[in-house]
Each structure stands twice: as structure tokens, then as C-alpha cells.
Amino acid sequence: MSITIKEIAVIAGVSRGTVDRALRNSPKINVDTKKKVLEVVEEYNYKPNYVGRALAKSKRQIRIAVITNSVGNTYFNEVFEGIKTAEKDFENFGICTTIFELKGFDVDDQLSAISKINCTDFDSLIITPINDKRISCALANLTESGVAIIAMNTDIEFEGKLCYVGCDYNKSGRTIGGLANMLIHEKCDILLTTGSMEVMGHKQRVKGLLEMSKGNKNIGNIEIIEHNDDEAVSYTKVKESLAANSKIRFVCTTAGGVEGAVKATSEIDYNIHIVSFDLTQKVLEGFNQDKILATIVQQPYDQGYIAVKCVYDNLFNGVVFGKDIYTDIAIKIKQNL
After folding, report:
1. Domains of the chain, earliest start first
2. Which of 4, 47, 219, 295 is most buried as measured by Cβ atoms within 10 A of its Cβ?
3. Half-sphere exposure of residue 242, counting CA atoms within 13 Å on the CB side?
4. What is the pLDDT along the chain (337 residues), one digit of tens a residue?
5. Are 324 and 164 spatial neighbours (Cβ–Cβ below 8 Å)?
6. Cα separation of 257 and 40, whole Å?
């Protein structure tokens, strides 16, 4: 007897997305639910036809929504280049993207953006998620409706996620901490700036840096400030911290806000060095001013491209990602730019 995925979902009392994850042996599915679905599959002798599904999908657009917290953060310019290149490479399969940009890390703003995504208008969602339970719940509900979701650039845990594409934030934090250990030769305090501790990646990066600083007798107090990836806020907060503490001789910018930090340190009449992330135009200017000693590059172009390719691999080839996909971490100094 021939049966469809939709009919299996009705019999098992689950969504079509849940049936799809059960058929693909996804680890992101409840064991009992998976068992119930597979019992229906066995009873009706259902045989999935991924080739037929791919052919069917190639005859229509595969619509990918992209939600990023990127307004005012030039890092994402290269991410978008990667996304658009992948879109062009896979255009014969109907892949097309729609990008929704948000400013800062407001949970309500991101929830509002997610609420606009549905399985009728979009097949997949690529998102830079804020690490909040309400976001996790909203994304899990979206996967239940059949939308394939990838976390890009920063991660979050929720039921049904395909995978995470981005850098290993703890390792990148340990890398910048290791650089600080090598570069700091006299007793001083450190100012550590980040976007938001509500973002899993930012939090992991700070944790990695703090882990590496333990035991370094030259490192005194470490002050942490959040600027919401806003350059004006970064400038104000860095300037205030430097005015209040003349022992700060080293600034680690672990997210956006580099321009603000460079501007604030340039107004001090003694030397303060910066170690940053990414290779934006503002970072290059910081190198030219001899304010930035080194920067950690996390391959933004690759993150955008790979995220779209993962959607293609999943929807067309039935690929189930058993682990996260980390992009390379590279150290850049003025001499190897």
C-alpha cells in the first residue's frame, strides 16, 4: 500500500518535519517519537525516495530565510558575500535567500523576526541566534512545522537543529588569551570588550580568554564591558574605563566595537595596544595606526557559504549532520596581511 509522509504524520500524530527527521535518523528527535514514526513506516512499508524529492524541489524555489544581528557590524559584509555566492552556485536547484538584518541583541526583536518565518514561505532558516530559552522554543517549534534550521556564526541548543556553522568560540577565546600572554611583559590590567553575554559565542570566547589568563602574573584585573556591537557605545564605555583605570594597557575586543575601541585608545596620552577579531576595514585602519597588534580571523565568507551549502545538502541529498562545522581560526598581524 502506497503512503505519503503527510499520511504517516497524521497516523503517528506528529508533524511532517518530525517524520522527516525520523527517516533521516536525526539525533534531534525524541526516542519514543522516533519509534512511533518508524512503526508506522514499517507497517505501511514506506520507502523514502530522496532522488524524487530532489527532482521535485529543483522544479521550484528553495527559499532560505537568513536572520542576522548585523546592522552596524561590517563583519557580516563578508558573510553575506558567501551567502550570495552559494545562492548563485546552487541557483539551478532553485536556491534563493532573503536576508533579515537586526541591530543589537534584543530578544523581542529576534522573536519578532522568527515569527515571520513559516513553512509556507520558507523551506529553511539560517540564523545568528541569541542564547535565550524563548528563542530556543521558537526555533524548535519552527522545525516541527518542517523548516530546516542552521545556527550560523553563533550557536544555540534546541530540538531539531540541523547543525552549527561557525568558529569554535572557546578555542578562539583561548587563542586571543594566548596572544595576550605572549604580548604582555609588564604588570597591567586588561579591558575585555564583547557584544553581549547573552550570545553563546561571545560568552564562550570570553570564557576561553579568561581560562588562558589564569596564572599569568603580569595580568592584573580584567574588566569586561558589553557594547551590543554598537561602535558609539563601545567608544563611550572604553573611554570611561580608561579614564577610571590608568593601569589598563591592553584591550581585547572579542566581538564588534573595534572602531570605538581604537578611537578611545587613540585619545589617551600613553600607549595601549589592542588584540581584536576579524579583518574588517576598521581593523585594517587600526593596524595602520599601530593600535592593533593582532587579530583573529574566523572566515566570515566561509561561514555564509557553508551554511547555504548545508541547506542544499540536507534538502536535496538527505544529509544529516552529526556534528557542528567549524571554520578555521587564523592569526593575522600587520606583517602578514
Report:
1. 5-43 (no CATH), 61-167+300-327 (3.40.50.2300), 169-297 (3.40.50.2300)
2. 295
3. 24
4. 467 778 888 888 988 778 877 776 666 678 888 888 888 888 888 766 554 555 555 556 889 999 999 998 989 999 999 999 999 999 888 899 999 999 999 999 999 999 999 988 999 999 999 999 999 999 999 998 889 999 999 999 998 899 999 999 999 999 999 998 888 889 999 999 999 999 999 999 999 999 998 889 999 999 999 999 999 999 999 999 999 999 999 999 999 899 999 999 999 989 898 999 999 999 999 999 999 999 999 999 999 999 999 999 888 877 778 789 999 999 999 999 8
5. yes
6. 53
Cα separation, 178 vs 308, whole angstroms: 33
